[in-house]
Amino acid sequence: MKKNSCKLIALIGACVLLTGALTGCGNSDSSAFQGVSASQESTQSTQAASSQESSQAAQDAGTQTSALSGTITMSGSTSMEKLATALCEAFMEKYPDVTATAEFTGSGAGIEAVSAGTVDIGNSSRNLKDEEKEAGVAENIVAIDGIAVCVTPDSSVTNLTKDELISIYTGEIANWKDLGGDDEPIVVVGREAGSGTRGAFEELLGIEDACNYANELDSTGAVIAKVASTPGAIGYASLDAIDDTVKAVSLEGVEATAENIKAGSYFLCRPFVMATKGEISEQSELVQAWFEFVLGDEGQAIAENIGLITVQ
């Protein structure tokens, strides 16, 4: 009996030990599983958050470059062709769903078009007239341009005073020898009536409707080409359009440069205007975005790169 009791006690003890071991293993496996599970949940949560952030960043980037769509139309000053073309290209690159177009028909025609509502913006290389402003057209100056007076590259005249320039264009001086140059007739070249460049040039000199032109041409390029190919010729054009086929003369001893215009020492300069029917704040979202671009750092850098004076 005593012997059997000992066997029974030993058997019970073994069962207890076995049960404890199994329980410990179960707890260990459960704890490990819970740790892996928590780690997986943390990783999944981080990945989800990262994915959401990436998606939001992509949406934000897309909003900045693609939210705008539609067409902006401009017409007007031929002197503003280089600026308008460069701005259109940069704006469309930034906003791929936008089309920006510009026609170069002269300042007067551009202001008439925007006033009639046939274009969004009328480009003018002169200040608006009082009657144009009274008709509801807003003058938005986007850059300042110098007007260069140019002669043929072989001309011996390199400087003119304001009074001499006035006398040339009114016909009082008709030969270069009277200005220290060669004995050669002066061929006076200018722009057509309605040109912003002509309007600004004559207004700055105070010779409106008093000029004695030999040639009146309808574009900046045509003026430069005519002066370059005509002995004794003199003309005027936007500073940024002057090339090595002609020579820009100094005025009152001051060279036609962007630095001198900024300093206020070169007197032949005028505004580049992008006119709208009503204030900018009254325009469409797309046109407002255009002016934000043009008058911002990007647009003003473009103006400066082509030789214009910024308005910032």
Describe the structure.
- The structure is a single chain.
- The chain is α/β, with parallel strands linked by helices and 312 residues long.
- It is 47% helix and 19% strand.
- The strands form two sheets. Strands 1, 2, 3, 4, 5, 7, 8, 9, 10 and 12 form a ten-stranded mixed beta sheet that branches.
- The longest helix has 65 residues, at 2-66.
- The radius of gyration is 38 Å and the shape is elongated.
- The protein starts with a helix and ends in a 7-residue tail after the last helix.
Blueprint (SSEs and pairs):
Layout: H1 2-66, E1 70-76, H2 81-94, E2 98-104, H3 107-116, E3 121-124, H4 130-134, E4 137-138, E5 141-151, E6 159-160, H5 162-169, E7 187-191, H6 196-205, E8 215-217, H7 220-229, E9 233-238, E10 247-248, E11 250-251, H8 258-263, E12 269-277, H9 285-294, H10 297-305
Parallel strand pairs: 1-2, 1-3, 6-11, 7-8, 7-9
Antiparallel strand pairs: 3-12, 4-12, 5-9, 5-10, 5-12
